[in-house]
């Protein structure tokens, strides 16, 4: 039998179908009576409402979600508008939308390539050059200035350039640093790690777990997004869909079991519409598309 969170996502898909009827809602109410199922449904429903795009179609679909909630006593729903207002980087200096990349020329001569669905703030002062990557991904080519360190904050960590070019990628639960030239000093809380050219470092955004160590990596693969490709090598499906969704404009919901499945694949940014179905054909998952660009994935 599948895990409760997989079942909850299955119910989310079925109840958002136009064919949902009273018999199906009664079946859902019986399933919901088990405490572990009720907890999984509450989590799936909260996640759905927090991430759902604010569109007319989505507001129509929320009527279905409300009927499902009534079957179990009327659960309170979070508003997508609240998510929109609190989305990281909502008021950043530079933002990109799905399918859009930007090359920024900063005042100090540094250059930044900003990936799709990303947000970056810049605050240059006399003593230091501060930047914040709120969400998404960016590649930094740093102009030398020994008197003003170049420091990027992201995911609860700081990254100080040491005469450097480097890439930062923020995903749901961690941030990945890849150094393509020279070195970067990564700092989180009291831990400091120097990452050399040709190495990558993964840091959990919650600060838990053992101290990570740099790993050898092919920088060309890690920064392939700058050349119209996305390449993953044994990456968890949760990270893959986070990156694909940011580039394509999808909202993605995954069960925990599905999110852990390793993926090795290459996708063309110009043909991302084919990616979800390719994943569904090659991995042990079930995939459903809902109105508003929402993709639901659960383990088989």
From TrEMBL:
Annotated segments matching region Disordered: 195-216
Chain ranges passing through the membrane: 68-86
UniProt entry tagged with the keyword NAD: no
Domain named FecR N-terminal: residues: 6-46
InterPro entries: FecR, FecR_N, Ferrdict_sens_TM
Pfam families from the UniProt entry: DUF4880, FecR
Keyword Membrane: yes
UniProt-recorded name of the protein: FecR protein
Molecular function (Gene Ontology), one example: sigma factor antagonist activity
Gene3D superfamilies: 2.60.120.1440
Keywords: Membrane, Transmembrane, Transmembrane helix
Domain annotation FecR protein: ranges: 93-184
């Amino acid at each position: 039998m599948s895990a409760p969170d997989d079942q909850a996502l299955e119910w989310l898909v079925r109840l958002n179908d136009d064919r949902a009827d009273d018999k199906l809602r009664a079946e859902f109410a019986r399933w919901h009576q088990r405490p572990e199922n009720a907890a999984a449904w509450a989590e799936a429903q909260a996640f759905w409402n927090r991430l759902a795009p604010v569109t007319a179609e989505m507001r129509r679909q929320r009527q279905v979600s409300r009927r499902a909630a009534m079957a179990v006593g009327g659960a309170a729903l979070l508003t997508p508008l609240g998510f929109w207002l609190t989305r990281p980087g909502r008021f950043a200096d530079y933002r990109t939308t799905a399918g859009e990349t930007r090359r920024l020329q900063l005042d100090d001569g540094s250059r930044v390539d900003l990936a799709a669905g990303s947000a970056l703030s810049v605050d240059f002062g006399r003593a230091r050059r501060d930047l914040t990557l709120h969400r998404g991904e960016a590649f930094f080519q740093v102009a030398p200035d020994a008197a003003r360190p170049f420091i990027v904050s992201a995911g609860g960590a700081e990254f100080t350039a040491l005469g450097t070019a480097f890439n930062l990628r923020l995903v749901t639960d961690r941030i990945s640093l890849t150094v393509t030239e020279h070195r970067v000093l990564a700092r989180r809380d009291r831990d400091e790690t120097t990452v050399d050219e040709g190495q990558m470092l993964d840091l959990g955004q919650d600060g838990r777990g053992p101290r990570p160590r740099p790993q050898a990596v092919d920088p060309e693969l890690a920064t392939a997004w700058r050349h119209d490709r996305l390449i993953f090598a044994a990456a968890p499906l949760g990270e893959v869909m986070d990156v694909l969704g940011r580039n394509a404009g999808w909202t993605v919901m995954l069960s925990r079991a599905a999110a852990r499945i390793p993926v090795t694949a290459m996708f063309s940014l110009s043909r991302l519409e084919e990616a979800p179905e390719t994943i569904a054909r090659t991995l042990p998952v079930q995939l459903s598309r809902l109105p508003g660009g929402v993709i639901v994935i659960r383990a088989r």
